[in-house]
Amino acid sequence: MTELTTASGTSWLSREEMDSARERLPILYVDAVPVRVDDHGTVSAIGLLLRVGGDGQIKRSLVSGRVLYHERVRAALLRHLEKDLGPLALPRVPPAPQPFTIAEYFPTPGVTPFHDPRQHAVSLAYVVPVEGDCAPQQDALELTWFSPLEVREPTVLAELANGQSHLLLQALAHLGV
Amino acid sequence: MTELTTASGTSWLSREEMDSARERLPILYVDAVPVRVDDHGTVSAIGLLLRVGGDGQIKRSLVSGRVLYHERVRAALLRHLEKDLGPLALPRVPPAPQPFTIAEYFPTPGVTPFHDPRQHAVSLAYVVPVEGDCAPQQDALELTWFSPLEVREPTVLAELANGQSHLLLQALAHLGV
Amino acid sequence: MTELTTASGTSWLSREEMDSARERLPILYVDAVPVRVDDHGTVSAIGLLLRVGGDGQIKRSLVSGRVLYHERVRAALLRHLEKDLGPLALPRVPPAPQPFTIAEYFPTPGVTPFHDPRQHAVSLAYVVPVEGDCAPQQDALELTWFSPLEVREPTVLAELANGQSHLLLQALAHLGV
Amino acid sequence: MTELTTASGTSWLSREEMDSARERLPILYVDAVPVRVDDHGTVSAIGLLLRVGGDGQIKRSLVSGRVLYHERVRAALLRHLEKDLGPLALPRVPPAPQPFTIAEYFPTPGVTPFHDPRQHAVSLAYVVPVEGDCAPQQDALELTWFSPLEVREPTVLAELANGQSHLLLQALAHLGV
C-alpha cells in the first residue's frame, strides 16, 4: 500500500503515535477495486491509480487506506474512494459488509503475498462499481481504466506494489471475468 | 414462489413439456431482493411485490423466476427485475456471480424452509439495489417499500409465501441490518 | 464436465428424456474442488481426477455432477465426492450453502469461459477439504494431488477440459493461495 | 466482547499501551461461531461459552479475541479457539479467508448492533466446525451446545452480550438453518 495517511486531519493520531502503533498492532485497512460496469452489471473496466511512492518510484495501486477510530468500514471506503477518485466519482459501495476477501499485509516479505514495509495491515477488500467522473486527487497522478484482459498483462501487474497484483487477480476471479 | 412462467414467449418449453420437466429435474431459479440504498450504500428500504397467486390468494413475494435455456444468470435476473418492477427500475445487479445464498424449494413441505408445490427449484439469491422508478408489471399488483424494521414485522413476514420470509431474513442478516 | 449421469439408477430420467431436457433447460450441477488442508486449515494440495472422456481423450477434471430431482445440493455434493473419491475420502462439505462462485457451462463455446457441448449447465462451486483416503472410482483413473504452485502450471491447467482450469484458478484465488 | 487479552504473554503491549491504542484505533478481532456438523455437513449444534464478565455478570459469548501484531488471522482464530475450547477441540478453520460477515463493535451504543464499551473493534466472523472434545478453559466456565432451534430462543439470545446475539443470528442465516 502506498502512503495514505494524510496531514489533512483525517487521522486522529500524531505521526509519532501512529508510527508507534504500527509497530505494535495490526492496522485495519480497506482496499477497493474500482470497476466500470455495463447495463447488465458486467465489468467492462478496472481502474488503477498511478502514484508516486514514498521512495519516489511511480507505481500503480488500488484505492486503499486506513479505517479511523469510530469510523464505519463503509464510511472509510467512501472517504478513500472520494479522496482518490474525486467527489464526482459516484461509487456504489456494496450494500453488504462481507468483503470478497481479506488481504494480510506483513512488514516481513514472504509471510503472505502482501507486503507493507511500514506495518502489519489487514485489509477488507471490496469491488466497487463507479458510475461518475473520476479525477485523481492528492498524491494520485492519474486513474487509468483497463479492460479485464489488459489489466492481466504482466507489464501492468508488475507496476502494482506490495502484492496488490495478487489482490487484483483475486478480484477478477471473484468477478468471474 | 408464485407462478412466474408466462405465456409471453420467454419460455422455450410448452406448458406440458415444462410440467413434465418439473416432475423430473430441479429447475434453476433466481431470487432477487430489491433494495433502496442511500448515498453510503446503506439499505434504507426493501421492496416486496403483492401478487395474486394461482389459488387466488393475495401474497407478497420477492422478485423470482426461472433461468431459461442458453440464458446467463445475470440476464435472467435483469429480465425478471424488469418484468416485475418495470423498465425504468434501473436495477444494479451485483458485478460478481457469487449469490449470498441458495434457496432449495422442495415440492414436499418440510425438507427445507422453502416450499414450491409445483416443482423442485433451486434458486440463486441476490440483493439488488434499485435506483429508478418502479412500476409493478403483469401479475404484480403493487410494489411496497418497507424499512428494514417494518419488513421484519410478523404480519409482513406472514404474507410471504413458500418460505420466502426465511430468504428475506437471510438477506437482512447478510446486509447486517 | 465429463459424463456423470450413470446407468446406476441414481438418475430418474431415461437417457432419451435427459437428452431432451438438456436441449431445453439449464441443468443444475455442483462442482467440488477437493483440497488437503494442514492443522491450520491452510490448503496444502488440490486434487484433480484423471478421466477418459467420451471422445477417448484423457483429461483432468474437478469432481462434478448433476443435482437430481428431490436431492439436496449438499447430498449431491457428497454423492459425487463419494462416487469419484471413494467411500473413505471423508469430505468436509462446508456447513453454509453459499457457493464461492457459480460456473455457467454453455453448449456454445465463448459465451462464458465454461463450455459443455452436451448441455447448458449451471454449477454451484465449493471447495471441499478431504481428510480420508481417496481411491478413484468408476470412470476416474486416478486422483492426483498437486501443490498450489504445481497446479497452476500451464501444462496442468491445459489438461483440464471445458474451462475447468478457469474454475480452478477462481478457487485458488478464493483460497488466497 | 468479554475481556480476552490475557497476561499470558500473548499480548505484545502493556495494559497501559493497549488501553491507549484502544482509544485511538479500531482494533482487529476475530469472532468464531463453533458448530457441530453431522456427516452431511449440516449443523446440528451451536456452541456458546458461559463467562464471568468484567462486571461480575454471567454472560454467554462466542469465541472472540484480538489479532496480534504479526499474527495471521487464521492463527488468531486457532489461538482463541484453543484458548476457549481447549487443546482437543479439533476446530476446522475454513480454508478460505473470506469471513461470512464483519461485526463493527463501537464504544458508543447504537451506532451498529454491536457494542464494546472498551474500544472500537472490527471483527472478522467465521463459522468453525469443531470435531473434538471441548473443555472450557481460563475464564470460560462452560461450553453449552444448543440445537439451531434452541439457540434462537429469546432467553438464550438475551444472555449474549455486546450485540453478539445479532452476530449469532447472522451466522444462522448464513448457514441456512
Automatic annotation (TrEMBL), chains A, B, C, D:
One Pfam family, short name: DUF4916
InterPro entries: DUF4916, NUDIX_hydrolase-like_dom_sf
SUPFAM superfamilies per UniProt: Nudix
Gene3D superfamilies: Nucleoside Triphosphate Pyrophosphohydrolase
Name of protein: DUF4916 domain-containing protein
